[in-house]
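Standup notes
- DV: blocked on the single-chain target, sequence here:
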Amino acid sequence: MENETISKNFIEQEIDKDLREGVYDHVCTRFPPEPNGYLHIGHAKSILLNYGLAQEYGGTFHMRFDDTNPTKEKMEFVESIKEDIQWLGADWKKHLYFASDYFDQMYACAVKLIEKGKAYVCDLTPDEIREYRGTLTEPGKNSPYRERTVEENLALFEEMREGKVADGSRVLRAKIDMASPNINMRDPIIYRVAHMSHHNTLDKWCIYPMYDFAHPIEDAIEGITHSICTLEFEDHRPLYDWVVRECEFENPPRQIEFAKLYLTNVVTGKRYIKKLVEDQIVDGWDDPRLVSIAALRRRGFTPESIKMFIDLCGVSKSQSSVDYAMLEYCIREDLKLKKPRVMAVLDPVKLIIDNYPEGEVEYLDAPNNLENEALGNRKVPFCRELYIEREDFMEEPPKKYFRLYPGNEVRLMNAYFVTCTGFEKDEKGNVTVVHCTYDPETKSGSGFSGRKVKGTIHWVSAQHAEKATVRLYENLVDEEKGVYNKEDGSLNLNPNSLTVKEILVEPSLKQAKAYDSFQFVRQGYFCVDARDSRPDNLVFNRIVSLKSSFKLPKK
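- DV (later): unblocked, structure below
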């Protein structure tokens, strides 16, 4: 039992302690995104952590939209978030909620605080409120409106609710301590006026609660036991506890903070992504160069690979960054035994086998995955004219080049040995055709045990190949310069983050559907694009290349 405790992360240890001491007799967690953008890889950590804890302890998991700010929220974001969470495998069952469902209770809590002398209406301007708040080293000073009577505050707050007050001219503030060393406790704003229609409550309200006031109330109403959030809310915890205590909730939830997930050289800030979308630098929130969950899904990442990545990152209280290469490692590990390995030529040059019978077509057996025999075999057509990769032929090869060059023999994958006999060039000196002969005794699977060759190259039949488009991705930002420009805060964009090529693929891919993924031998893992690909116009996104220098750290 002692070893089991040591292997648990600090949140699990805290939950064990709470259950052991009878603070709670069950576990209830939640994921509470604000619907003001698409979720990204960092949110995946929070989703899987909260859902995983509920599963581990036989508890319940709530999905709740923290929709208290109508200025930035859209139903488009609500739907995308639901889709992302379901795709990751977190099942909220019947527990789908909106913070706006509790606006009446939040208003009642605000009235209760006024009646207890714990909240007051303040007419200071936003600039004046900032000025009165003080600094990290100097205490704040009391608002001149701080000592209004309960009756006056109730009347003024009702005027705010009735729409008689202009936006920004009046707020409701908690009455705590303007000299507190924690700035969050210096009479924070808990309600503001905003004459805006809300996606859920429409025009019922023209006052909206602030996040720090609304969030603990939502948790308390739903019976959340452990409010798991990121480290930036650690300084807000005293206010969280103050709200649930002063609003007199029984069995209040407990906030526990963990370190955010930071990935090197990627853009996660919603403000930056929004600008990239608006400036059409990317083709939407799901552009495969981004690390939104929708973008990762469209690029071809799997829920299993993201779970593996989150598990490898672990849960701690210390901030650190994780190399993007670790995420790529996880998708390679997940796909390598699951996916068929097929032939695609990204930069084609024609190969003619001069001694192969004209008009003849053979259908050769090709294993779908040499590391997983359960995936079986497929048939690939072979004939006199093929296409190979341009880089697989050189007129004057360097040392240790084992592919095609005049006089050299290689194996055509799953087919025959061929020997290069010559080549043709155009007027610019570019090779247009490579000529060779084949040895019919060397057919793959025939048991041929004569001479050996050092090189094996892939190919597609010129007669049967399907045309396709491939998108090759590099990092969206310039890794050498860093993500952000130090002078103006703009993004250091990589002008070569996307390369589009017309390619040829073997005919077995003609039936490929959205999100189907494959290993293109010697090229990487590719996924059928869910938005742009059609049966008559196949489009593949490269998920990840085959090779990486990344290695898991030794334990």
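- Follow-up: Confidence is low (pLDDT under 50) at residues 1-5.
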